Amino acid sequence: MPSTGRPTRTKAQQREATTRALVAEARRLFAEHGYAHVSLAQIVDATGVTKGALYHHFSGKDDLFRAVLLQIHEEVAAKVADAAADADAWTQLVAGCCTFLAASTEPGIHQIMLVDAPSVLGWGAWRELDASTSMKQLEMGLTQLMAEGIIVQQPVRPLVHLLSGAMNEAALWLARSENRDADLEETMTALTRMLESLRPPA
Predict the structure, then answer these.
(1) pTM, two decimal places
(2) Which fold has domain 60-197?
């Protein structure tokens, strides 16, 4: 048989391509319609694979949702890490927190990350995933700033939970705002003032 000139993909590459396609389509549908209103049939139809192929890669819709959510958490964490990456630790903290607010309220992210995730995964599992990404970054930044004397020494874990909770609540509100850009700017200003209050008195 004559060659088509195109390299033949290995089974591992085919599996990886199928997984990427399933995650991409599931992410699009979950973001647009919400987890509860998306069926596995819709996902396989949009992807062009069989339901059997889907079950070969994922145990079910919740497992596929978890893969989508992990991808989103990693993307948001990367954006936060890149925010003012070459600046000092204080600037990185403020920029990172503001970047989290902006990224987590983007269309296509907030429905999955903030609205559906706690109910689909369960509160405990959702908090564990959040703790391994955004909360971990926040804790590292605050710990460094305390060590450098830029913010007041205090127990870091309660502070991390307080700030993380405040930002998640703000993100949920912003995601439903009718004027997201203006409200986001005002929220970032309020957040920056909140962070400034952690610094020692002049």
Answers:
(1) 0.85
(2) Tetracycline Repressor; domain 2 (1.10.357)
